[in-house]
Amino acid sequence: MNLFIPLIILGVLLLITGILILLDQLLGSNKEKVLTINNDTKIKINQTDTLLNTLAKEEIFIPSACGGKATCGLCKCKVTSGAGDTLPTEEPFLSEAEKEAGVRLSCQVKVRDDMHIELPLDQLNAQEYKAEVTEIKDLTYDIVLLRVNLIEPDTMDFKPGQYAQIEVPGLEVIRAYSIASNPKHKDMLEFIIRYVPKGKATTYIHKAVMVGDTISLTGPYGDFYLQEDSDKEMICIAGGSGKAPIRSILSYLKDRGMPRKVTYFFGARSKKDLYYTEEFRELEKEFDNFKYVPALSDPDPDDNWDGETGLITEVVDRMTGDLSDKEAYLCGSPGMIDACNKVLEDHNLPDEQCFYDKFS
Ligand SMILES: Cc1cc2nc3c(=O)[nH]c(=O)nc-3n(C[C@H](O)[C@H](O)[C@H](O)COP(=O)(O)OP(=O)(O)OC[C@H]3O[C@@H](n4cnc5c(N)ncnc54)[C@H](O)[C@@H]3O)c2cc1C
Ligand code: FES
Q1: What is the count of structural domains for the chain?
Q2: Does 260 lie in the same domain as 197?
Q3: Which mutation among 107, 109, 173 tests ligand 2's pocket best, with the greatest number of atoms within 8 A of CB?
C-alpha cells in the first residue's frame, strides 16, 4: 500500500509533464512558424526567439549596440503582422508615427507565430566579418585611431557616414563605431574611438587590443550617410569622436573634386582635444569651397588660441546665415546634437535636410 501511492503520484506527474510538452509543441515555442521578409523571402523557424536573434541566425544583421537590452533603440524593424502589441520597453524609442507604421524593437519582439516584416534592402547587406588589427594610434590623450584589414569576407561596401559594430570577445558586448575611412578602401576600415572610463568596449579597444589581433565586427549599418543625389551646400558639425563619419564623407567628396560647398564646424574643449587639424587645413588649401572651423569652448591659457571660441552651438549660430536651402550633417553626443538641431531650426533648416548620428 505504502509503495503504491508514490507510484500513482509519479505516474500522474509524468502524465501531466507529457501533456504539457505536447501542448507546448502544438501551441507554443517549438511549432513551425514562417517569417516573411519583404513579401518574398520566407524563412521556416522552429524555435521561439527574439526577432533580432532569429534574423541573426539567418545571417541578417540588424544594428543592436546594446545587445538586446532595449537601451540603444537601434534595432528598429517594421513588422506588418504577427508581433502583438508594443511592449512598455519599446515605448521610449518609438514615435507615434512609427508605432502606427508597425515599427518595433526587434530585440523585444518574439517570433511566436507567422510574422511579416519589411527590411530596407540596405539592411540586408550587413554581414559578419573577421578583421586583423593593423594599427592603433593615439590621436589625443583619450582618442585612438583603430585600423583593421578585413579578412573574411575581405571587402565591405559602405556609404560614407555609415557604421559597423565591433564585438568585445568574452563579454558578449557589441558597440557601434562609425567608419572614419574612405569607402574606396573596401578591404581596410578605420575607426576613431574615444575612451569612456569603465566603458566595456572602449577599455578593450584602448587597453587590450594589440596589432595582429583578430576582431569580429558586423556592418555596414545606418541611414546617416552622404546624400549623393543632392548638390546642396553642406554644413557639418561634430564633437569628439563624431569626427569619424564626417572624415569619411569629406574624403569621399575630396576624391570627387569637392563638388559641393562645405563648412565643417568641429567643437572641442581645448587644444589638446583637437586632432587631424592638419588634414582638414590641407583640404582647405586644396579646395576654395571647403572651410574648416575648429572651435574651443574652454581653451587653456597656454593654448594661445586665436581661432573661434565658445560652445559649438554658439559658433554655428553666429557664423551661419539662412539654411533653408542647405543640408546639415551632425555627429556627436545626444546632448550636442539636440542643442545643434535647435540652432539649425532657428536658421530655417528643414527637417528633411538634416542628417545626424547620436553616439548614444
Ligand atoms: C551609430 C553610433 C555610432 C557611434 N560611433 C562612435 C565612434 O565613431 N566613436 C566612438 O568613440 N563612439 C561611437 N559611438 C558610441 C559607442 O557605440 C559606445 O557607446 C561608446 O564607445 C561607449 O562604449 P563602452 O562599451 O566603452 O561603454 P559602456 O560600457 O557602454 O558604458 C560605460 C558607462 O559610460 C557611460 N557612457 C557610454 N557612452 C558614453 C559616452 N560617449 N560619454 C560618456 N559616458 C558614456 C554609460 O552610460 C555607462 O555608464 C557610436 C554610437 C552609435 C549609436
Ligand atoms: S538592441 Fe538595443 S534596443 Fe534593441
Answers
A1: 3
A2: no
A3: 107
Kindly state whether residues 272 and 191 are assigned to the same domain: no
Domain that holds residue 214: 126-221
Give the C-alpha separation, 351 to 204, whole Å: 37
27 in any annotated domain = no
pTM given for the model:
0.88
Mean pLDDT per segment of 10 residues, for the chain of length 360 residues? 73 73 61 91 90 92 87 93 94 94 96 93 89 98 98 97 93 91 98 96 96 96 94 96 97 97 97 97 97 97 95 96 97 94 97 91
The CATH number linked to 310 is 3.40.50.80
CA of 62 to the centre of ligand 2 (A): 9
Pocket test for ligand 1, best of 71, 93, 141, 177 (most atoms within 8 A of CB): 177
Number of the ligand closest to the Cα of 224: 1
Q: Using the 3D structure, point to which of 76, 106, 122 is the last residue of a domain.
A: 122
| Statement to judge: residues 96 and 140 lie in one domain | no
- Confirm if 193 and 164 have CB atoms less than 8 A apart: no
